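dude i think i finally got it to work??
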Amino acid sequence: MKDSQKRITQADYIREGIKFESYIRESDVRLRSDEYIVIHLDGVKFTGNYYKKYSNDDKKQVVRALANVAKLLCDKFSSARISYVYGDEISIILDGVDIKTNYHNRIQKLCSCISSQTTILFFNELQKLNKTQFSDLMQNCVFACKVYNLPKELIDPYMKWRLHACGKMIHDRHEQWNNKKNWEKFGFLITKEDDWSIRSVDFSSKKFQKKPQNEFFNID
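look at this
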């Protein structure tokens, strides 16, 4: 029986695709590789739909699971330099060189890859907790993602800004600051020494610096 499907050559494929190239390139924005890159992940409607239903202990486990995800992402990206987690948000600072090599500096590709990886990792972390009250969040966890460049001198003020956002959340809810645990007031900071480590610490009066003996940011 003769195959009725016309053979599509590479030339045919390229000729047909030319008409779409301008539309694709128009939205295919690229990052600078000579500056640092911020990945900012935000859980979609986590606070409104899920967190407000949880006890304080359950919420802590979810936020801690998110911190574990940030640590795993830092392990996956050789260019990760520091990360911070609070509420339903993850911020990761990357060196731009690695992004140039693996993602060709493309914002769309980086956002889509990070969002999907975060969703899978977060689902797995919640599954480990084996709690039925998290099942709805597990089935509906979606992360919005933004990426943008940041020069080195703005890394320290950026981290302080995210810490202020964490504290602002408490005051916006008219809750008592002194009654809150450290993880609620300061979130989770993920830094690299011998390995990536997670801790809850007030770094408002500290300074983030890139250690001369390695490539990673830490606090003094």
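Residues 46 and 149 are 26 Å apart (CA to CA).
im so relieved honestly
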